[in-house]
Amino acid sequence: MADDKQVRVILWCVPRTVSTAFAKCMSNLDDVQIINEPYVSAFIRGPEMFQPSLAKNQVKIMAKTSQVDLGFDAGWETDKATYKSIKENVLMAEYPDKKVVFVKDMAYGIAWKLHMLPEGYRHAFLIRNPVKVFLSWKKVLEKLGKVYECEYLLENNNNLTSEKYFFGESFQLYEHLVKTGIEPNPVIIDSDDLLETPEFILREFCKRTGIQYKDELLSWNSGDSVVQNWKFSKHFMKGNQLSGYYNNAFASQSFYKSNPPADRADLQEDVKICVEASMPYYEKMYALRLHEEKQ
Predict the structure, then answer these.
(1) Which of 256, 199, 19 is nearest to 127 (CA)?
(2) Which residue has the higher pLDDT, 177 or 2?
(3) Does position 263 have pLDDT exceeding 80, yes or no?
């Protein structure tokens, strides 16, 4: 780093964008504190729970996760996580021995409470082709439904898909950051670019956010042992032990090229609805993304 000033960065994501692998990658930085999904945990499971339709399943879900023993204690109790407590006690907390504080969160978790954005952070975005996002998200919801014995539909009138299909909230947050001058030119990364040219994307991301790049960001150890040093929602980590939504990322050792998206004409109707609603926001952000110019 150019100086000894601590760098704080939030990467605002939509689900299923290899964001957890990105957090594992950032764990290879020197003297870094990783904070995983603070606001979205308050959005989904906190006392200010924004989606009332989730409340009916809360008792059943909490009963299941309460039986899980993580084996270590490094997170917050999600049912007590207000936005105020997340901001003051997690995001604005002092981390005096850290050079970097890196936060991975979901934009839809903060879009309805923009006044709670923490001060002193740089802001960046991680997006992905909506076809890939919603095909993957549907699989996650189906697995969650089996584990918790609940019905989770893909469309946004039922539970875990946000009102503007994730991408609308991301673009809303992007516009807010630019218009207010909080972050005049946020870095936008498309996960397929990250998977295709990881060294270029990571070098540029670090350069533009003030982080010291190192080649060790390009590979990491398989497994979830690094998570013990993160700050996170205990509920989310316990949920992963039951349904495995982070498992691919935890098993990863590097970024690798992905397959092309499925043909939109072949999508099931619920996936198609989500893709068509989110595509205009995605295309606006995609046009502004960080990418390597082809020779």
Answers:
(1) 19
(2) 177
(3) yes
